[in-house]
Amino acid sequence: MSRKSVQDMKASDVMSRKLITVEQDEDVSSAIGKMQKHDINEVPVISEDGNILGLVNYETLLKRRSIPMSTKVENVMAFPPRVDEDASVMDIAETMLSSGYRAVPVTDKERVVGIVSRTDLVNIIPALKILSGIEVNEIMTEAPHHIGEKDTIDQARSIMYKLDVRALPVTNGDENIVGVIGLKDLGKASFRKRDRATRGDSGGEQITAKIKVGSIMKSPPITITETQTIVEAVTLMNKNNISSVIVTEKDKPVGIVTQYDLIELIASFKHEEQVFVQISGLHEADPDAYDMMYELIQKNIKRVSKIVTPKIFTIHVTSQEAGSDHLSGDVTLRGRMTTEHELYYSTVTDWDIMKALSTMLSNIEKSIRKDKDKKVSADKRK
Q1: Antiparallel, parallel or unpaired: β 42-46 and 22-23
Q2: Rounded distance between C-alpha atoms, residue 382 and residue 371, angstroms
């Protein structure tokens, strides 16, 4: 890749032009077969004349577990946003963050000419000097949830949906890391058993509830330390064809770095006053909570904008019980604010989601003001 600044890079510079696609009248079994054969997470659905219609991916299919394998893909496809060849990589990164899709089609009018995946975007990071010195501990998600090797893949699927994550560290009885399980692993195992049921094995669906995580996880796990750089993390992801790397200390999982974290960094290069805000983990059940949280966040951003330049603010909500009402009961908020020069984190647990959010915002603001005071003091000593 030529050494351009991130501001100069376009979709045409990073997109994959060799497309694996399915036509609208193909069935789910065919789409899964192509994803497994080419080890990809999604395939575009196209019409006979080559126009893009939608996208089929493991995530969509896993959420609709009861669909027959003979279902036409046009009946289960998702509708991701599209970008043109001149779209900047910052815009594409922001589109992925706001939509939740791992890949976006690149179109010329309605015709698909390529696709940009998270991997395509992450691969530009080693060429960016400005990011070369960032250590893993600056962007990792701390204390990641993990699952036992003797737990079932149904339990893994439930946790992934609840936490809105796509990979989980797998631990043994001593809570030492022994592997990693991802959404793709779940998809392959689930649909392999469902295909058996389709061919007449009536126990196919029941078997999925008994499959142990340890039997399908990736092992040994690919790990990294907190003080290694994100460039080293990207190198490990590419070498092993994975989308996340587990951060360990003495064989214990202490963090996780995902492509999502790296995409956030790329999006933060976009020069504009608007701050990208994402709240995950609420799902569709809490629209009122989202509105209240968003309003409080905007007030905080307005205050700290006088000190720093916020770019991205992400919050993930985790309740103690899957499916519980986030407006009451213990809830944990993990927040991260990306500014023009620094990253700020805070994790708060409380019975009231708004109280937790207020505490988190206060913690981040205090950290920002503390850094500001240090800088002022340092400038005075010069």
Answers
A1: parallel
A2: 17
Of the candidates 82, 166, 89, the residue with the CA atom closest to the CA atom of residue 120: 89
Q: Are 150 and 213 a contacting pair, CB within 8 Å? A: yes
**Cα dihedral 69, 34, 37, 209 sign:** negative
253's tokens? 């999982």
- Dihedral of CA atoms 221, 227, 231, 236 in degrees, nearest 10, equals -10
Q: Can you tell me which residue has the tokens 């936490």?
A: 163
Q: Which tokens hold the place of 178? A: 């022994």
Six token digits for residue 45: 């659905």
Ranges of H-type helices in the chain: 11-14, 28-38, 58-63, 89-99, 118-122, 153-163, 183-198, 204-208, 213-216, 230-240, 259-267, 287-304, 353-381
Number of domains in the chain: 3
169 in Cβ contact with 144 (< 8 Å): yes
Instruction: Show the CA angle centred on residue 193, arms to residues 191 and 195, nearest 5°.
Output: 65
pLDDT above 50: residue 203: no
- List the domain range (segments joined by +) for residue 286: 272-381
- What pLDDT, in 10s, does the model give residues 23-42? 999 999 999 999 989 888 88
Residues 84 and 196 in one domain: no
pTM above 0.90, yes or no: no
- Determine the 3-state secondary structure of 348 from DSSP: strand
| 16 assigned to some structural domain | yes
CATH number of the domain to which 369 belongs: 3.30.160.100
Whether 241 and 276 map to the same domain: the answer is: no
